[in-house]
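Lab notes, practical 5.
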Amino acid sequence: MSQLAEHRRRLDADMEQRGAWPARAPWIRQAAGDLPREAFATDQVWYWDGHAYVPVDRSANPDRWAALVYPDPDDATITQITHGVPSSSLSCEAVVADMLDSLLLEEGHQVLELGAGTGRNAALAARRTGPGRVITVEVDKALAQSAQGNVEAAGADVSVVVGDGAAGWPSGAPYDRVISTFAVDEVPWTWVAQTRSGGRIVTPWGRLGHVALKVAADGRSASGWMQGLAAFMPPRHLLVGRSFAQVRGDGPSQDEGPFEKDVCLLADNVHLRFALRVALPEVEITTAVDEDGMNAWLHDGVSSWATLSALGGGRTIADQGGPRRLADELEHAWDRWLAEDRPDVYDFGMTVEPNRQYVWSRDPGNSWWQVKSAGRAPLVS
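Output from the prediction step:
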């Protein structure tokens, strides 16, 4: 058995073992087998070596390349680097299957995909809808050209067009289904407006989860539940932002005091992390362990920061700076999560309206986050 065939078999078996192939949509597993990852992978892929993304060429190191094209179900294959960070990939197989399952695709559906990437997701969708029913939009002209070649070579009748995914593709509207392969912090109203009443929109939200929205009968709103975890890249213009070091600077701490929560949960509890992402959508949290325990770094990408430093013996100290007190905001949101009996990612939902959208927990009346008018600052309830 070739290296590629062995890696392909292993990934399929791993997906089966963990129950990641959707039982109600067996077509997804069949399509994934018919459209293997290597048919859409670039000849050069990348991996993180702890310091930077390192390229691996198919011709120079075919075994390593094959292993990166067929990683674990929750790992993506990086196919493009821009300004030192990933800008396109073959998505995690488990997330691809989960999002296609959430889309509830049927034969004959007219589908708009936003973010063609390698073209594989669109080709998979076309296996379900039939020929000529999928349009995929890609902002990068070179990627769009490559994706078009990939889908044609795979025998998929998919239209690849160049454009800004946030604007959708109005000339093909209305659509029965809309799916995004890049993460958004706000769902563009254009996606809702271009979807039929009763149609479905699936998109990663907040770079940590993905949501399925059903368009209301009057077309004036879309609402639905979070479907699971999905770490997707943001739109191209948001790839490079200010780092913690840039926000922190080298000035002294403006506020220092004990932090009483268990910082280990920030690394280990994905449901807490998602709730904090809902409550503090602009705050980036990273964690790392050292000999004293778990540490965390927070920043808002603008001017406020906090560090949660382990001192040993289960003690943690918080240092903060900037106009906001991010450690205090984190603790406040954490307390709300505890007070509401630790809602998990599946307890959250989202509603999108023309002039506002909000994320809620368990009931639309229990808003955790909302934004009014595109581009305005989030309002935490």
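Observations recorded by the TA: The first strand starts at residue 44 and ends at 48. The chain has eleven helices and 20 strands.
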